[in-house]
Amino acid sequence: MADRSFLDWPFLDDHHRLLAADLEAWCAANLPVDHTDVDAACRNLVTRLGADGWLGHSANMERPELDLRALCLMRETLARHDGLADFAFAMQGLGMGPVTLFGDEQQKQWLLQTMAGTAVAGFALSEPASGSDVANLATTASPDGDDWVINGEKTWISNGGIADIYTVFARTGEGPGARGLSCFLVPADTPGITIEERIDVIAPHPLARLTFANMRLPASALIGTAGKGFGMAMAVLDIFRSTVGAAALGFARRALDEALGRVSTRELFGAPMAAMPTVQSSLAEMALDVDAAALLIYRAAWTKDDGAARISREASMAKLHATEIAQSVIDKAVQLHGGDGVRSGQMVERLYREIRALRIYEGASEVQKLIIARQILDGVAEN
Ligand SMILES: Cc1cc2nc3c(=O)[nH]c(=O)nc-3n(C[C@H](O)[C@H](O)[C@H](O)COP(=O)(O)OP(=O)(O)OC[C@H]3O[C@@H](n4cnc5c(N)ncnc54)[C@H](O)[C@@H]3O)c2cc1C
Q1: pTM for this entry
Q2: What is the rounded end-to-end Cα distance, in angstroms, of the chain?
Q3: How many Å apart are CA 359 and CA 336, to the nearest integer?
Q4: Looking at domain 5-116, which CATH architecture does it have?
Q5: By CB atoms within 10 Å of each CB, which of 261, 321, 363, 379 scores lowest?
Q6: Ligand 1: does its nearest atom lie under 6 Å from the Cβ of 224?
């Protein structure tokens, strides 16, 4: 059982502690699931997470504010048990993030379905030529009477191919670059959408490249104000970035647990591995990394929950540090397992594959460094 002492930290309230205990019990009873067919597994996870009320935390019909500490706790708990369960949970929130934060009452009706687990959500921002460079995206949305007509291509779209509803970012041209983007709510059965390619990755999840050919949307599909799409995407990522760090933290905690189990039970040279100073040094580094990441994540989440309008610096630090240390913690756990560490299907081998993409999506590590540097330089300029 992973170290739970962080639950006593003052960043968390009693309802968070109860939530963590309840979800832990749910995970122990329901996870991991069979990943052989990731589409079916993912749909099934969304259904079960919804039916048992967990997806209600991914959106809020009355208040756009989300309980970020709850989201982080949930992602780290789910990730510790099953990466696909964390993915299924997270995408319902990220996919509907623009609606939760900026949608009108009619658009929010979709939240009832995504929270109940009866509709799967996707977030379509990245394009073949603009993943990190979001402001440069090329998909267009042109007004035509009361409608919008969308043309373009999106790639790396999580839940692409199984989603029922997407939020899609497109260029509407109110201004240059970032100042000319808007966000639209797009049911997956809208004529003009094609799933061009399903993408296989080292830790399989439903992923696809989509195209839009003269896809016609009513005026009511526009989320918020035309031209404000870039700020909306950044506000959504501001929230969900800390939760990517939390998922990485869940993977790292599981790796530390697995390593502790291994070194406590395996003997080498006539003594338990756990008695070897170099092994203890690895364990100490892993535990230190895990605690430091947790502090950054719950600092970011607490800052948001405490009323901060934006947490760009805190969220970027949390995501950057947690994903980078998780990679290193998992690598140490693989090493401590020897040959078993790279045996297909072993938990540490799965974690080794699961963690890699988290250092790339929702802003690669280098992009997080740019954001942090910009924030601290702005602070210097203001003083
Ligand atoms: C598993 C997975 C799931 C994803 N899910 C989604 C999704 O649901 N929706 C969605 O819209 N997108 C999604 N993405 C896309 C993801 O956000 C992009 O892959 C990511 O933003 C990087 O963009 P890119 O792949 O085009 O790489 P590029 O933009 O070409 O960047 C390549 C590398 O260049 C470096 N780099 C980038 N910018 C800088 C810089 N400013 N300074 C220095 N170095 C830099 C980084 O190391 C980066 O990894 C997903 C990606 C993956 C792998």
Answers
A1: 0.97
A2: 47
A3: 23
A4: Orthogonal Bundle (1.10)
A5: 379
A6: no
Distance from the alpha carbon of residue 370 to the mean position of ligand 1, in angstroms: 14
Q: What is the pLDDT of residues 110-161, one digit of tens each?
A: 999 999 999 999 999 999 999 999 999 999 999 999 999 999 999 999 999 9
Compute the distance between CA of residue 129 and CA of residue 125 in angstroms, rounded to an integer: 11
Choose among 60, 72, 30, 28: nearest CA to 48. Answer: 30
Total Cβ atoms within 10 A of residue 106 = 9
d(CA 263, CA 267): 8
Just give the CATH number of 230-382: 1.20.140.10
Q: Are 363 and 371 in contact (CB under 8 A)?
A: yes
Tell whether ligand 1 has an atom less than 6 A from the beta carbon of residue 88: no
| Nearest CA owner, ligand 1 atom 29 | 132
DSSP run (H or E) holding 21: helix 14-30
Q: Give the CA distances from residue 170 to residues 30, 33, 108, 146, in Å, rounded to whole numbers and listed in that order.
A: 39, 36, 20, 17
**Catalytic site residues?**
362
Alpha carbon 150 to its chain centroid, in Å, reads 26
Q: List strand residue ranges (DSSP E) for 80-225, in order.
A: 121-124, 140-144, 147-158, 165-171, 181-187, 193-198, 207-218, 222-223
Cα–Cα distance for residue pair 226/311, rounded to 1 Å: 24
Residue pair 293/322 in contact by the 8 Å Cβ criterion: yes
Ligand 1 proximity of 21 Cβ (cutoff 6 Å)? no
Q: What is the DSSP letter of 225?
A: -
Give me the residue spans of the domains in the chain.
Answer: 5-116, 121-226, 230-382
